Design the sequence.
């Protein structure tokens, strides 16, 4: 197709076409002319022939000598023209002449006579005295045509060759002519393609050459201009890029800001009821923003209240400049949006539309609800709440503050909370408050305030500064808890504690003094009783003598009193905190094995059966105190199971603790007494006949708790008792 | 079919019943170096409706016929060709066009005929019965 648009073709084609048409015309006209000429020629020839034959026939018939005719016929018969001759006699029927003679003999006279299309006929009449007739000389049309073709073949050949040669010749001429134009075209195209590379070329001394030179000059100028333009363009591009980057950045920031603010745009055209939403809104409208086409699509999103607000507004807003702002809730009853818009006129079309923004305000609504709740809480709190600005001027107080201070909110607005302070507040406390406020720290102090009526009241003051999003102090929140009653109770408690302390000290002194005062006479009594025993052994040989029973009773009571005194003394030391606790790693297994060998109860040969479970380890214990614990528990187990099988002790060493369970099968402890079994002087009601001070378990519990352990008791009356001590490792 | 043709056909039938002599009453046959002394009617007809171009003696057969002005033309035409003189002309015209046989000579008088025959070996023709024919030229009809 490029070839057919080329100049070469455009120059060559007309000439070639013209020559072709000429050749075609010749090819069409010439044969026809040739045919006619040949036909005429043939007609002449045949006419001559017919005439000759006719004359021959006439002469022959008249002269009675057919020799001449014979020779004539012999002459024509030797030609190669495929000629046929018919001699027809007019006969009686001119319309159907009689064929007298014909040659060649293989002729079909009737066929030839009836066919005037296939055969070319020439007729020549003859007249003789004998008869008249016609000589028809016939040749097939095909012969003429073949002759024409034979004559025309070289002509056709020549024409074809001429067309080809002429075509080629014209083509090369056209090529030669168009070459410079083609080069110019290429040159122009290169110019169009902005190829301004310099070229070297020789100047042809013709119009083409001049044109080419002009174009070259133009190219150079363009090159220079291109350079200038390029520099300009570079500058412009840099500028544009800069501005574009700035614009893109601004747009990005705007989009980001909108995205961050969960904000998008909308536009509504009244005439077409068409609503368009920006993509930003997908984030909270369920990815459907870009599918909205009309107002009804948007209304479907809203709950019934929203629909009732939006629909009339959009339908009835027809005043340019009319603004609105609606808080709407979506149908899911979760998302809130704010729709703000203004009715405007399109400057180009004059059409009325609403343009505006839609923002997700769910968080704000939640915050407002939260604030509302908190506001309610603050309002209704029984504690006083005061909010000040950064200058510590009151901007809001709740009802409890009004009640506490006796002032109303309006009386307090703009005032300083210092107005409530009373001189009774510790100056040190006031100083702490001042420093805390200065340093914008949280403050927790107790101050004595005075109300409007002059009454004083203690408050536990919690002050906390609050800041804006930029970290700047906005104000202070103060919560005042009325602790007047507590302060009073504290004072009373303090006094009570003072008194108790005195009493405790007194008790300790009394116990110490009393135990010391009791110990001396008891020791004296015991020693005298032992002396008596000694003398009675000499003087009264009968061991059943009553004196021995009395001595035994004295010894027993002394032992009991001594034991009681020791326990009381021990408790006194515990209460006064004078009992030292010195834990150290102790081989508990060895301690227990040694202890169970002792005879805790007189006249009772039973021993405590002990069983160790787990890998024995050293336990951090005060040996003296824990020895006391075990001794007491083993002693009790034997004492309260007299006559029963031996008590059992199971020591289980676990990963983080050791459990010591001591079980006896004795009288047990009544259920009613179990809760108080570790209290002073409390014993089971079924143990009245068994000697005991009622302080042992209390002391054991105190000692176990000093080891950060626990002790618990399980018992069934008349079955037995298990005491479990747990010590952490 | 024309009346003339019917008459001719009937006459032909009659002549078939006539002795040969009756045939020869109007004309006599003359020839030169034909190799024939006598000839029958049938032979004569076959000679003049030629089948051969040469006599047995290899001389070319030259047919001589009475011309348009000859008194015996019609008799000859009728007796030999059973047709009219014009038909004989047409007949011989067609034979000439065929090119297979030599063209005949037509003479209007017996003298021309005899002179030609005397000069032309192989020629054969007809003269009237009243014409004196040398013996060497006469061919008798059987």
Sequence:
């Amino acid at each position: 197709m490029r070839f057919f648009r080329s100049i070469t073709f455009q120059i060559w084609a007309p000439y070639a076409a013209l020559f072709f048409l000429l050749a075609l015309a010749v090819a069409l006209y010439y044969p026809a002319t040739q045919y006619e000429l040949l036909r005429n020629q043939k007609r002449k020839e045949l006419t001559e022939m017919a005439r000759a034959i006719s004359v021959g026939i006439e002469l022959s018939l008249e002269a009675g000598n057919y020799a001449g005719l014979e020779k004539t016929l012999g002459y024509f018969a030797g030609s190669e023209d495929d000629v046929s001759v018919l001699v027809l006699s007019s006969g009686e029927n001119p319309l159907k002449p009689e064929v007298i003679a014909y040659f060649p003999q293989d002729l079909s006279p009737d066929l030839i006579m009836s066919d005037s299309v296939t055969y070319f006929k020439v007729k020549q009449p003859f007249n003789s005295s004998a008869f008249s007739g016609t000589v028809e000389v016939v040749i097939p049309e095909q012969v003429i045509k073949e002759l024409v073709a034979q004559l025309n073949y070289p002509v056709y050949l020549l024409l074809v060759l001429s067309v080809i040669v002429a075509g080629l010749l014209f083509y090369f001429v056209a090529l030669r002519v168009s070459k410079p134009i083609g080069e110019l075209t290429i040159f122009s195209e290169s110019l169009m393609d902005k190829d301004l590379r310099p070229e070297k070329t020789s100047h042809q001394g013709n119009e083409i050459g001049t044109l080419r030179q002009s174009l070259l000059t133009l190219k150079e100028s363009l090159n220079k201009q291109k350079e200038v333009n390029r520099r300009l363009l570079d500058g412009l591009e840099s500028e544009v890029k800069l501005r574009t980057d700035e614009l893109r950045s601004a747009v990005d920031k705007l989009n980001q800001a909108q995205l961050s603010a969960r904000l998008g745009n909308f536009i509504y055209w009244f005439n077409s009821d068409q609503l368009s939403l920006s993509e930003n809104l997908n984030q909270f409208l369920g990815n459907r923003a870009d599918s909205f086409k009309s107002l009804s699509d948007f209304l479907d999103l809203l709950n019934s209240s929203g629909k009732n607000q939006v629909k009339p507004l959009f339908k009835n807003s027809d005043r340019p400049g009319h603004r609105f702002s609606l808080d709407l809730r979506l149908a899911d009853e979760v998302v809130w949006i704010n729709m703000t818009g203004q009715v405007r006129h399109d400057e180009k079309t004059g059409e009325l539309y609403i343009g505006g923004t839609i923002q997700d305000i769910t968080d704000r609504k939640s915050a407002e609800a939260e604030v509302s709740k908190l506001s309610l809480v603050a309002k209704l709190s029984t504690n006083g709440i005061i909010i000040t600005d950064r200058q510590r001027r009151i901007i809001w107080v709740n009802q409890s503050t009004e009640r506490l201070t006796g002032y109303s909110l309006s009386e307090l607005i703009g005032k300083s909370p210092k107005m409530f302070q009373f001189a009774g507040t510790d100056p040190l406390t006031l100083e702490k408050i001042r420093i805390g406020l200065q340093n914008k720290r949280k403050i927790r102090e107790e101050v004595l305030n005075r109300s409007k009526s002059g009454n004083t009241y203690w408050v536990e003051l919690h002050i906390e500064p609050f800041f804006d999003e930029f970290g700047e102090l906005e104000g202070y929140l103060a919560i005042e808890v009325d602790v007047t009653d507590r302060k009073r109770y504290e004072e009373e408690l303090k006094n009570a504690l003072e008194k108790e302390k005195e009493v405790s000290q007194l008790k300790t002194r009394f116990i110490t003094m009393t135990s010391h005062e009791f110990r001396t006479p008891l020791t004296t009594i015991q020693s005298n009783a032992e002396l008596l025993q000694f003398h009675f052994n000499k003087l009264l040989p009968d061991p059943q003598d009553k004196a021995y029973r009395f001595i035994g009773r004295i010894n027993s009571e002394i032992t009991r009193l001594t034991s009681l005194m020791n326990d009381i003394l021990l408790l006194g030391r515990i209460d006064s905190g004078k009992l030292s606790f010195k834990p150290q790693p102790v081989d508990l297994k060895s301690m227990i094995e040694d202890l169970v060998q002792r005879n805790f109860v007189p006249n009772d040969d039973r021993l405590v059966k002990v069983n160790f479970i787990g890998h024995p380890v050293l336990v951090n214990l005060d040996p003296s105190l824990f020895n006391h614990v075990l001794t007491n528990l083993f002693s009790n187990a034997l004492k309260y199971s007299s006559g029963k099988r031996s008590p059992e002790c199971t020591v289980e060493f676990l990963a983080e603790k050791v459990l010591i369970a001591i079980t006896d099968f004795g009288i047990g402890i009544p259920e009613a007494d179990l809760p108080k079994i570790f209290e002073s002087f409390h014993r089971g009601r079924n143990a009245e006949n068994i000697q005991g001070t009622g302080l042992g378990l209390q002391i054991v519990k105190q000692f176990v708790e000093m080891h950060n352990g626990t002790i618990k008791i399980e018992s069934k009356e008349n079955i037995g008792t298990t005491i479990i001590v747990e010590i952490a490792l | 079919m024309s009346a003339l043709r019917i008459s001719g056909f009937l006459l032909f039938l009659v002549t078939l019943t006539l002795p040969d002599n009756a045939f020869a009453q109007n004309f006599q046959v003359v020839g030169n170096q034909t190799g024939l002394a006598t000839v029958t009617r049938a032979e004569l007809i076959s000679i003049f409706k030629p089948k051969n171009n040469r006599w047995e003696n290899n001389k070319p057969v030259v047919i001589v016929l009475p011309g348009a002005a000859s008194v015996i033309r019609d008799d000859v035409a009728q007796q030999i060709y059973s047709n009219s003189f014009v038909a004989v002309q047409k007949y011989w015209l067609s034979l000439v066009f065929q090119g297979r046989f030599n063209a005949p000579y037509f003479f209007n008088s017996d003298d021309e005929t005899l002179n030609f025959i005397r000069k032309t070996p192989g020629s054969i023709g007809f003269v009237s019965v009243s014409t004196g024919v040398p013996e060497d030229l006469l061919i008798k009809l059987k």
